[in-house]
Amino acid sequence: MKRRQGWLFFIIFLLTLSVYLLINYPLQLGLDLQGGSQLTLQIIKEEGKVTRDELEAVNSVIDKRVNNLGVSESNLQTLGGDQLILELPGEQNPLVASRVLGKTALLEFRTQKEGTSIDLKTLQLQRLTIKELIEQYSFAEKSQNDNNLKVIQEDLKNIEQELNYSSTSNDLYGKLIEIKKYVDKEITNLFIKTDLSGKDLINAGRRQEQTNSNWEVLLTFSNSGGEKFAEITKSIAGTNQLLGIILDGESISEASVGNQFASTGITGGSATISGNFSAENARELEVQLKGGSLPLPIEIVETNTIGALLGSKNILKSLYAAISGLIFVGIFMIFNYRILGFVSVLSLVIYGFFNLAIYSLIPVTLTLPGISGLILSIGMAVDANILIFERIREELYDGNTLTRSIDSGFQRANSSIVDGHITTLLSCFVLFLLGTNFVKGFAATLGIGVLISLFTSLNCSKNILRFFTTYQSLRQKDLYLPRNNFSN
Questions:
Q1: Which of 102, 124, 144 is the last residue of a domain?
Q2: Are strands 250-255 and 243-247 parallel, antiparallel or unpaired?
């Protein structure tokens, strides 16, 4: 008796824990339920067709960048021989993702050419002026101050005259960005390539600078990369030459190396990029460097935003379908199996809480195929209960007592239930191993549901039923047999 009560209290504890998890760890929804962005990426190759290896390499880098962005249950699949389709759940602004995913992120370390100090300082001042103009433009746009915009336009013309370069963009902001890129590339031309590149990186991070609100990016090199970095910094330490950090052909930072490193260079296998980064820019650069450089450039040829409204409609329809199905199943079970059917309904409710709690804890990102897997697993849980209840009825027809019939019914149905669940689990394993993302979501929810169904069918139903039979008024055989068999 004490053992039975212990199981009952354990089930109540698990149910309470499930409610707590669902309150504190909300379920994650996929693109079809919460909306998001869909990007079509075109791989660009100047000569020849994109090979399968190149396609897989681009796919791998994009996948790493998406993971570092923190987007859950993203879906990346190939389209033809040179395109990728990327789906980002919850990301309503595709421009945010495109800034990170669309860059090649080819990181290079270069040393300054001799005799270019004056040209470099001039270009650095011009770059600083352009950055200030970009900030002024943003402020003027927000305040809708046309006079400030005219001043910015005049300052930009002066810079273009100094550079002997005319921007081709139609709008003022586009001109500012174009001029900034031009200056960054001009600065890059003042530096000589070395054999140290992003291929020598093993990690990247970011942190806020202690002296101001700007952010910096931290780099960690491999052993060979650390040796290369030490050798390069040793060669320019204490000189007027700077170390240029180049990303996609544009200089993002130029740093001096102190005389104290003239004998050994900067050792330790790490470096810091300080480029007056905002928190967002530092994060984008971190994601790009962590994912690695793209073997081929890509272009985002199409962006689609899937609104949350569509997702909410899908959720409501799925919810209505699930609740309607449960109600009809509950009515059928109670009408046909009476007390046994009522126990089955309670067990299914507990099963539902356990399932959703596991989804929120792992976490499992719910999509429409995933919800289908959940509903199918509920059907299997009901099927297990029916097998048990039919065995209990057979025992009652044979004249056994209620307690003995319940114990014998669970024991007789046990092997059939376990065998059926194992075969379904094997199918789920194969689907998860070989299927696409959405198929994997279906397999995951179905597999989790099947495992929990084993526990609820063989333990929850049994202990709830035993609890009911402790009441004398619920021990009458006619409460467990069909209405047309009361006389039996």
A1: 102
A2: antiparallel
